[in-house]
């Protein structure tokens, strides 16, 4: 099978079988387009002729000649490995020639959190009786109180709050978890549910969504991002805040307060504790900074 045919068949497969988003499909198409060009230049017209050395050469090329960052190279290799795994599983080729090609080691990126006082300033920027501000405060309080991803927060339904002081969160891979909701968030959400949501819901189509827009539709992820950005600008913290800041700050502040890393793992919905342990490095750095600036014999 020609390389172009194989790529097209794989893209149709991931579009139908895995239901990927348009953006993800576009990324696959770009990555595999570059890979197909590389194979054509190497004289590989049929996928049966492609070798592990060809895959390794592609990785070396995008890292060397093209100067791609390690993260970009890892993503492109992931697309290539997906293609070859599919071809082997479908019996189009006898072996997965990309299986043993390892991605470049990614630099460790520590989560970026903001301090407790800065978080108070950020949430405080939603003070007011305007219905939009009441909704925005409920959203930001809940994000900080639960450490949910923005996509998880906007995916919440009213019934997900039916467990008293807990919220039921649907995470990655369809995994559910229960997360406690603190008093500040409960107060803000109750105010929104009492004073704002009923009026907005009446304008919509009876959606069960917890967070709505003024027209009664479920709040989108993009709209939630704009809420966060607007609050960050009003608080003067816009240079330091992204939607994930709330999740990072939630975990960091819990660990600084003495929470066990495995409890934080459960609250965040991490499948591996190794991911959560990145936050312990942030906390250790903060402790080191305080020690260095405070102890008379530290320097």
Characterization of this structure:
It is a single chain. The protein has 299 residues and is mainly alpha-helical. It has 13 helices and two strands, in the order H-H-H-H-H-H-H-E-E-H-H-H-H-H-H. It has a two-stranded antiparallel ribbon. Strand 1 and strand 2 form a beta hairpin. Helix 1 runs antiparallel to helix 2. The N and C termini lie far apart (66 Å).
Helix and strand content put the structural class at mainly alpha
Overall 3D form: globular
The total count of helices amounts to: 13
What radius of gyration results from the CA coordinates? 24 Å
Beta fraction of the residues?
under 5%
Low-confidence stretches: none
What composes the largest sheet? 2 strands, antiparallel
Oligomer: single chain
Q: Please give the number of β-strands.
A: 2
Q: Helicity range of the residues?
A: 55-70%
Q: Average pLDDT, to the nearest integer?
A: 88
Can you write the helix and strand succession as a string? HHHHHHHEEHHHHHH
Kindly report the spatial arrangement of strands forming the biggest sheet.
1-2
End-to-end Cα distance, whole Å, is: 66 Å
């Amino acid at each position: 099978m020609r390389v172009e045919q194989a790529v097209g068949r794989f893209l149709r497969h991931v579009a139908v079988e895995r239901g990927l988003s348009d953006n993800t499909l576009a990324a696959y198409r770009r990555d595999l387009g570059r890979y197909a060009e590389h194979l054509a230049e190497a004289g590989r017209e049929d996928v049966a002729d492609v070798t592990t050395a060809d895959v390794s050469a592609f990785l070396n090329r995008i890292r060397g000649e093209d100067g791609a960052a390690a993260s970009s190279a890892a993503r492109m290799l992931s697309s290539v490995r997906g293609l070859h795994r599919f071809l082997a599983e479908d019996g189009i080729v006898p072996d997965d020639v990309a299986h043993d090609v390892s991605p470049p080691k990614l630099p460790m990126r520590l989560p970026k959190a903001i301090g407790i006082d800065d978080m108070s300033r950020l949430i405080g920027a939603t003070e007011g009786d305007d219905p939009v501000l009441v909704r925005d405060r409920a959203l930001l309080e809940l994000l900080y109180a639960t450490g949910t991803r923005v996509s998880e927060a906007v995916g919440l339904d009213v019934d997900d709050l039916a467990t008293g002081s807990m919220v039921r969160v649907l995470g990655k891979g369809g995994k559910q978890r229960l997360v406690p909701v603190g008093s500040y968030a409960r107060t803000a959400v109750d105010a929104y549910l009492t004073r704002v949501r009923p009026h907005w819901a009446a304008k919509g189509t009876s959606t069960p969504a917890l967070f709505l827009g003024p027209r009664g539709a479920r709040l989108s992820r993009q709209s939630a991002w704009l809420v966060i950005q607007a609050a960050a600008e009003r608080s003067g913290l816009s240079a330091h805040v992204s939607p994930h800041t709330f999740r990072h700050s939630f975990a960091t502040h819990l660990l600084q307060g003495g929470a066990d890393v495995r409890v934080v793992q459960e609250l965040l919905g991490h499948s591996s504790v190794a991911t959560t342990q990145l936050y312990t490095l942030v906390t250790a750095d903060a402790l080191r900074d305080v020690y260095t600036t405070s102890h008379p014999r530290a320097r």
